[in-house]
Request: fold
Amino acid sequence: MEKTIAVLPGDGIGKEVVAGAIKVLETVAAQYGHQFNFEYGRIGGVAIDEDGVPLPADTIQLCKNSDAVLLGAVGGPKWDQNPPHLRPETGLLGIRKELGLFANLRPVQAFPSLADASTLKKEVIENVDLMIVRELTGGIYFGTPRERKVENGVKMVVDTLVYTNEEIERILRKAFELAMVRNKKVTSVDKANVLETSRVWREIANEVAKDFPDVQLDHMLVDNAAMQLIRNPKQFDVMVTENMFGDILSDEASMLTGSLGMLSSASLSADGPGLYEPAHGSAPDIAGQNKANPLATILSVAMMLKYSFNLLEEGTVIEQAVNEVLNKGYRTADIASGNESVLSTDQMVEQVIKEIKEISK
Ligand code: IPM
Ligand code: MG
Reply:
């Protein structure tokens, strides 16, 4: 199989973790006789510095011409004071919108050997296996008007939470489809006791559920969901929610795996290339120090192989290799506890590669 992958390392640790994930992809290609062509583009702060905008037109074109996109992370203190159109995050939101990546999948799986890295009790997190399905191209992230204004001498500020029925329906359908190949349970998270968008969301969820009689649908208010996630995360299979709730709940859920450094993600559109990125940010405090945990990015390319290229065995081998490396006690700083010895980014990548060669030989 031959595929072209657009690579957007971005800022901070993005470059380091992406470099590691590419080595993993190259190993898989060699082991299974595939060819992956990597085409590099700029996004985020690095693009602001080089091109004057966070999402240059040629980056958009590069992504649209590719079979899948691998993204590192964007952002950093250097650009924090910039006006909105010159912020790195605007580049990330822009590429999501340009590629129509409405479905963000964030799998949260407890790794048994990392039970001690979590701040939560072992019995709470063991065997957790849930999928957060976050709406990614609508809601308050994109709604207009979005402005500061003065009316009758009163200064005020507006963000807009807006959804079309179609946007709500397609993300809910995606969640039900995923539940069909998992444990057939969907928890739809909203704030229907307050927000009109949430009330409509709930109505549409009930409608869509009729097409999936084998799937159990529950509704949960977002504040309760935040609490239930740490009280009893095992009750969840697929959790589907709007953009901002999903942003917040997925960071919270990452702690069930021990570290945000373990959380992978896939962002999918109706037909174009998918985008794969770790759920963590650019971590400017440790950037350039070869300390970052590359596993979230490596697990993201496993998702790429499965979801975009239908290379199920190859994707699974990467996941198994990560599990094996963790079982053997290898840790980066963010997941080390007690007196475990700490590996650098590169060393962790090497261990994963060694394991992939071992499993696939
Ligand atoms: C994420 C990030 C982004 C988001 C930021 C960087 C704009 O937090 O992917 O979860 O809020 O979507
Ligand atoms: Mg986030």
Observations:
- DSSP finds twelve helices and twelve strands in the chain.
